[in-house]
Amino acid sequence: MKRIFVSIASYRDPECQWTVKDLFEKAKYPERIFVGICWQFIAEEDGAFFEVETRPEQVRRIDFDALESKGACWAKVQAMSLWQGEEYILNIDSHMRFAQNWDEQMIDMLAMCPSEKTLLSTYPAIYNPPNTLTPSTPQLVVKEFNETSKVLHLRSYNRILTAPKRNAFVAGGFIFAKSELFEQIPWDPNIYFYGEEITFALRAWTHGWDCYTPHLCSIFHYYGRKEESKHSSDNKKWFEIDKKSKQRVLHIMGTECREDIVIEDKFQLGMLRTIQEFQLFSGVNFEQLSFTEAASLGSVNLSDSLS
């Protein structure tokens, strides 16, 4: 059975109801799709976000007052708790659109990858509400080490691909894999937002997972959400949470190791490959906060060197 669990963490997002509607309408086998949503909302203000229900018997939800939220990865942990053994998991943001037959496309692309432990991930193509889609197949490449936080930031690099392309990096809002990935690499609720992508990529890599950029455009993301509510605008203590989170990220990356930070076993790096091997593969140096030109351009040498 090829069932897909779609995990969504939604923070006061009016688009989430339309995301769920679209993913079912565009799926080739909607009866095989199950959705788990961590709803974070303020009841007296966000009622309009729940006007549309699509296949409610296939949608699981866990509700929180938005003021109780502890950040993006915490919410992803809550959403993932609704998984009930589906063979595949798609982790997305709550503001997405889909290509026709996206479910079959993703499973087929995953099967094309040579590794037994494979995930598909990238920053998705662009859409603007309600349904203006701009297809593309971007690859994740290095943008910079943030000057203040020292956390690695990524960007999209558009490519035309004929097959899934091996890559080093992971996007927090689009990961598709067999469910074993998230059993081995659960979301770390102690990471607030920035740093979730590189720490997940490192943990997956060191546990033997290979990341591939999809060559077909199956999914779209709404990037222009400047007016929407964010956790950082509602929570007056977000800066304190974020500061501790970034210290944890730098500790995991090996940039600034601290004796006062304890990483629980399930959130530690794996033993199958080393962080040094990841640095050689990706072209990124976490101690020197540097990266190669190949890492910033997603060259063939970077992505195919260990195929």
Walkthrough of the structure:
This protein is of the alpha/beta class and 307 residues long. The chain contains ten helices and 16 strands. It has helices spanning 16-26, 72-80, 102-112, 180-184, 196-206, 231-234, 238-253, 275-282, 293-297, 300-304; strands at residues 4-11, 33-41, 59-65, 88-92, 96-98, 118-121, 125-128, 132-134, 137-145, 152-159, 165-167, 174-178, 210-213, 219-221, 284-285, 290-291. It is globular. It starts with a strand and ends with a helix. 44% of the residues are buried. Residues 300-307 have low confidence and may be disordered.
Task: Briefly characterize the structure.
The protein is an alpha/beta fold and 307 residues long.
List the helices and strands and how they pair.
Layout (H helix, E strand, L loop, with lengths): L3 E8 L4 H11 L6 E9 L17 E7 L6 H9 L7 E5 L3 E3 L3 H11 L5 E4 L3 E4 L3 E3 L2 E9 L6 E8 L5 E3 L6 E5 L1 H5 L11 H11 L3 E4 L5 E3 L9 H4 L3 H16 L21 H8 L1 E2 L4 E2 L1 H5 L2 H5 L3
Parallel strand pairs: 1-2, 1-4, 2-3, 6-13, 7-14
Antiparallel strand pairs: 4-12, 5-14, 6-12, 7-8, 9-10, 11-13, 15-16
